[in-house]
Design goal:
single chain; 239 residues; mainly beta; 2 domains; 5-stranded mixed β-sheet; 2 helices; 16 strands; 38% strand; disordered N terminus
Length: 239
């Protein structure tokens, strides 16, 4: 199975309705109840199902399930025919997908027969969409429901500007979905997180518009440095 981080370098288009790469959805669970989770590929029959037990005063504050697993047992469930996951009331159900074929989604129901109470393809108020931006370049962050959006620039890490001391990872950038329209361009470092708090119906996408492979003179700098390193090694051996 490919790791979620290694796949992030090749996935440059993210969609909350078709999880892939580093994208994660977090859905709040405010009521103590038993929920039926079904994972689908397109509109086919469920690939696997599970029970989400939301309890008043027991369980973790969030659970994370990988929609890309073959079945619910691969996500850490029990050995029973249908896995059960426990989360505390007020916690979150977090979903991601390691599947190579994007397009899996999840439905939540109060039981297996009722219409879905939540569809991961259509985010609702209180949901969170989060991801790591890895590939340097200019992206469009948009809500496909209302057309709102803004530009995100993932800056190229020019090695000529590196400092001797290691740099602390940048804190994630957090933005409410209502601030997407007309928002000034967001600048991020590679590997920095971006979190969108959903305030109205949303389908969020993050699409590469223009890749950034570094300053034009960077290749010449690297060739010169490589030549200096080779010369230094030859000098050291001859000493």
């Amino acid at each position: 199975m490919r790791s979620i981080i290694s796949s992030a370098f090749t996935v440059i288009d993210l969609d909350s309705a078709a999880l892939a790469g580093t994208a994660t959805i977090a859905h709040p669970l405010p009521d103590a109840e038993a929920l039926w989770l079904a994972v689908h590929q397109e509109e086919h029959q469920p690939l696997w199902t599970a029970i989400i037990s939301v309890r008043d005063a027991s369980g973790p504050m969030h659970i994370t399930l990988d929609l890309g697993t073959a079945d619910s047992k691969c996500s850490g469930g029990t050995e029973s025919s249908q896995a059960e996951y426990v989360v505390r009331r007020g916690g979150y159900l977090c979903l991601r997908s390691s599947a190579q074929d994007a397009g899996r989604f999840a439905l939540l129901r109060t039981d297996g027969k009722q219409p879905s109470s939540w569809d991961s393809r259509s985010l609702a108020p209180g949901d969170v969409f989060a991801f790591l931006a890895m590939r340097p370049g200019t992206y469009a962050l948009a809500n496909r429901v209302d057309g709102a959006g803004c530009t995100v620039t993932v800056t190229y890490p020019d090695p000529r500007h590196n400092k001797a001391s290691p740099r602390q990872p940048a804190e994630p950038i957090r933005i409410p979905s209502s601030r997407l329209p007309g928002h000034q361009a967001i600048a991020m470092d590679p590997g920095q997180g971006l979190v969108v708090d959903v305030e109205a119906a949303a389908r969020l996408t993050f699409n590469l518009q223009t890749a950034d492979d570094g300053p034009p003179d960077l290749a010449e700098w690297r060739r010169a440095r490589s030549g200096q390193d080779r010369q230094g090694r030859r000098t050291s051996r001859g000493a």
